DUF3108 domain-containing protein (Noviluteimonas gilva), 256 residues
Amino acid sequence: MYRFLLALALAGACASAHAQDPAAPTEQESEALATAASRGVALWRLERAATTADVVARDERKFRKDERVVGFVTREDGDAIVVTWVDATPAALYRVRVGVDGVAGELETLETPAALTPGETAEAKARAIAIPLVPPTCTDSYRTVALPVSDARWSVYLLPATAKAQSVPIGGSYRIDVADGKVASQHAYTKTCVALDTKPGTVATMVTSDFDAMPTDVHVFWQLWSRTPMYVSTQRGLWAIQEGHATLLERPKTGQ
């Protein structure tokens, strides 16, 4: 039945799927979907800003040769995102401001390392703890994003990087939660190094969730990153994600 629904969706018949009146998400599921959407959009915005800023920074020879740089942090400033590269202190060395439209400004070079904000300091420390724990497996390198959960807890996401066009490297996505300076939990999103095909003519992608009963923030991130609708099959049903918003299409039939 899942394949049938997916075929309908790929043919542009989402309305037909909804006409079957699938069981509505529970209140708890609706809250989880809203959280996944919010955090997934945040992941996408921060990753886009970091990637755009990195291109600007690497145009400068001084930056490329600066051995003090050990990583970066991100900070929201109104609608913009400030990407700051740090040393081991951690202290700020360089900054790039990325607008809400994803366009980056010029690289700001700090002649003297500058103090970070408390949030930036907490993020830098969480990254330093989390990133070394997961060596690249499905990729040569990770793109990394950190989101605050509370003042003392951060989620650090390791998202596979790829140089391949028309491929969504969702396999190998990982999250490490850091609280009070220690690893609180770890979560893998897939069992394999699955990559979704987005060759020309692809209307949507589909993935089976190995560990999660519902679409997650990482599914939302990859849907936005790929600019392609995504269908996620879980033990609770078939879900559709489009423009960062997840909806339930169908529950599993009894006995499935």
